[in-house]
TrEMBL record:
Keywords: NADP. Belongs to the NmrA-type oxidoreductase family. PANTHER family: NITROGEN METABOLITE REPRESSION PROTEIN NMRA FAMILY MEMBER, NMRA-LIKE DOMAIN-CONTAINING PROTEIN. GO terms for cellular component: nucleus. Residues 33-161 form the NmrA-like domain. It comes from Myotis davidii. It comes from the Eukaryota. This is NmrA-like family domain-containing protein 1.
Amino acid sequence: MLTSQNHGDLRMSVQWSRSFVYRWHVKGTPQIKGKLVADVTKRLGVKHVVFSGLENVKRLTGGKLVVEHFDRKGEVEEYFWSIGVPMTSIHLAAYFENFLTLWKPKKASDGDYYTVALPMGDIPMDGISVADIGAVVSRIFDSPEEFLGKAMGLTYEKLGFPGAEEMANMFRFYQMKPARDVKLTHRLNPEVKSFSQFVSENKEALMGI
C-alpha cells in the first residue's frame, strides 16, 4: 500500500538533481515500489535518474519465457519512460560475484577439476563485477548530454564457457544475446575488472568451495 509516509521517506532519500536507483526500501511489491520511486522522482523534478533496469523478457518473448527478476525491473523501467522521467537505464550483465554463491563451481568426483553448470552451450555470457558499477554510474552522471534518454547494456567481457525454472529461462534469454556493450563499459570505467582478475582476487573464497 502506498502511503504518505512512504512518499515522505522516499523523498528524504532522493537527491534533487540526480539519483541512482538500484533498490528501494518501502512497502509493497517490487513493481509498486519501483513505480513509487518513479512517481517521486518525477514529482521532485529530479534532472537525471540512472536506473538499474533489465529487459522485460516476458513481453519481449510474447510470454514464452518468464524471468521474474528481469520482468519486474523491465516493467518498472517501462513505467519510468512512460511518465517522462529524465533517465538513463543500465542493463547490467551477470555478476561475477554469483560464482561465489548461486553459481559456485563444483569439484569433480576425482578432485582434479571443477565444473560450472551454466546452460549457455557455445554462446558466450556477459559478465561484470558489482564493484565496478559505481564508477560507471558516476561517468554517466558526468555526461548527461550523452546518456540521457538511453537504455544501455553493460558488460566487461563475454565469458566463453558452457535449478529453477526462472534461472533456466534467464539463461535461455541470455542465449538470445541481449545488448551488452563491452566498449562502452570500458570507456565509462577503464578500471573495470576482467573475470580472470575477479577470480584472482577471490581465489580464497573459490578454493573454499
